[in-house]
């Protein structure tokens, strides 16, 4: 596997880095609003321009925080690539349009770059895809994708009209959860679907991990940069770590120029072996 994280072979990203910014817990009082907003701005300025959010996060508060950050971005900061998600219970043809409009308003934008189905619910996939295609035809979203889809879900999506227009599957992936390497990651690579890795820091379980810290010491970076560079090493994966701290985001951004060598990868494999058989998709 290549260990270069600087360029993007995923055309929809238009050359942006494969490292973005998550936002599940942002805008909800863990830190004050301005601190988290400035952290997002700092991240975009460091080149972490894919911002991931969802109508679900803080019931819209995360999208509002991101909207404030976008309005305060200094000129020349680059154009962030916005990702948001519709909840399964809003995934009907009309529900998608309503949910999209509310997200768009909270974000304060005309167009959302990438709109995802957060996870599968009872609405037929074909209906959600039709709604996504309608938003795309109207120029309201640029691309659409899915989240928490296992290989059989992707195969089903590929069988429905326009299902092959999906550009991303956002799933849980980190050094302690490698099940997707067995079948889903190869399937997505073969079918030109980008994989967005959520919980790339194990939802904070990997913070302070001794092996990652030791590998990081060798490269003059922290363990979180190692975890992120590892997640992005195939060139097919976009990692979206969350942080409300500009300092932590700065540490994470070191992953952009970190090249893990064969010895680093072997040590991680020894501690967390790649899957040898199909595993159910991990979901948080
Ligand atoms: N599609 C889905 O179903 C789904 C599910 C889960 C998550 N997501 C997306 O993926 C994003 C990331 O996942 P996640 O938030 O669950 O977990 P994560 O990114 O693996 O971990 C986030 C945690 O790591 C801490 N952290 C980040 N950088 C750090 C650093 N350099 N040093 C120390 N601590 C650091 C953060 O705290 P600080 O704020 O203190 O830095 C936060 O507690 C979410 O925010 C969301 O956008 C999607």
UniProtKB/TrEMBL annotation:
It comes from the Bacteria. It holds the Pfam family Aldo_ket_red. Gene3D superfamilies: NADP-dependent oxidoreductase domain. Residues 19-271 form the NADP-dependent oxidoreductase domain. Transmembrane segments: none annotated. This is Aldo/keto reductase. It comes from Comamonas terrae.
């Amino acid at each position: 596997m290549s260990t270069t994280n600087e360029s993007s072979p995923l055309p929809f990203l238009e050359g942006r880095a494969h490292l973005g910014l998550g936002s599940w817990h942002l805008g909800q009082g863990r830190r004050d609003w301005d601190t988290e907003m400035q952290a997002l701005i700092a991240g975009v300025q460091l080149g972490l321009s894919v911002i991931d959010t969802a109508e679900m996060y803080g019931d819209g508060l995360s999208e509002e925080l991101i909207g404030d950050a976008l309005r305060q971005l200094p000129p020349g900061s680059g154009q962030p690539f916005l990702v948001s998600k519709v909840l399964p219970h809003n995934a009907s043809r009309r529900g998608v349009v309503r949910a999209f409009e509310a997200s768009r308003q909270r974000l304060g934008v005309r167009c959302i770059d990438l709109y995802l189905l957060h996870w599968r619910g009872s609405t037929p996939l074909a209906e959600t895809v039709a709604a996504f295609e309608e938003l795309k035809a109207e120029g309201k979203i640029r691309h659409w994708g899915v989240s928490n889809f296992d290989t059989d879900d992707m195969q089903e999506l590929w069988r429905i009209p326009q299902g092959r227009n999906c550009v991303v599957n956002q799933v849980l992936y980190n050094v302690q959860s490698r099940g997707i390497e067995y079948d889903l990651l190869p399937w997505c690579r073969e079918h030109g679907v980008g994989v967005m890795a959520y919980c790339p820091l194990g939802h904070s379980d990997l913070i302070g991990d001794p092996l990652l810290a030791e590998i990081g010491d060798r490269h003059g970076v922290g363990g979180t940069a190692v975890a992120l560079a590892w997640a992005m090493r195939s060139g097919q994966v976009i990692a979206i770590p969350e942080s409300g701290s500009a300092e932590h985001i700065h540490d994470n951004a070191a992953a952009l120029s970190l090249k893990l060598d064969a010895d680093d990868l072997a040590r991680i494999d020894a501690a967390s072996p790649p899957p040898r058989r199909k595993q159910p998709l991990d979901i948080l």
